[in-house]
Design goal:
Length: about 140
């Protein structure tokens, strides 16, 4: 499995924490699309670069981080083929997979406890897309 990670300065520390968890604890191949410091950057630029990497390497998922998760989720959802959910607890992360079948998550680096964020990522990765009425609903929005 390959997962692309990206963050602006507000999500940098959380991205680094999740990167270690995924690569060391879960043995998942992680592709870091930046940023690589906590210096100010523009989240739309980071989102665009990460989406290009995600598509180029055919990664399974793209996990993104900014201060609240809102800005980077908006930027990612403007990109064709990216379906990003802003998640705020384990249940919302699991349901983003089960009901919505998203391929990207956005988390707020200034909003979440790091261990909670880790549990959210793990819950998402352990969930499976449900093919009931949600499949019909997903089709209505183009995926």
């Amino acid at each position: 499995m390959k997962i692309v990670l990206c963050a602006d300065h507000g999500g940098f520390l959380l991205k680094e924490y999740i990167k270690k968890h995924l690569s060391n604890d879960k043995k998942i191949e992680v592709i870091d699309a930046g940023t690589f410091t906590d210096e100010s950057v523009d989240y739309p630029d980071i989102a665009n670069d990460a989406a290009k990497k995600y598509k180029a390497i055919h990664a399974e998922y793209l996990f993104s981080f900014c201060g609240t998760g809102v800005g980077i989720s908006i930027a990612l959802n403007k990109i064709d083929g990216i379906y990003c959910a802003l998640v705020y607890n384990v249940e919302s992360a699991v349901l983003a997979m089960e009901h919505n079948g998203v391929n990207a998550l956005a988390l707020g680096g200034r909003q979440l406890d790091f261990d909670m964020a880790k549990d959210m990522i793990d819950g998402f990765l352990n969930a499976k897309v449900l093919d009931d009425s949600h499949k019909r609903r997903r089709a209505k929005i183009g995926y």
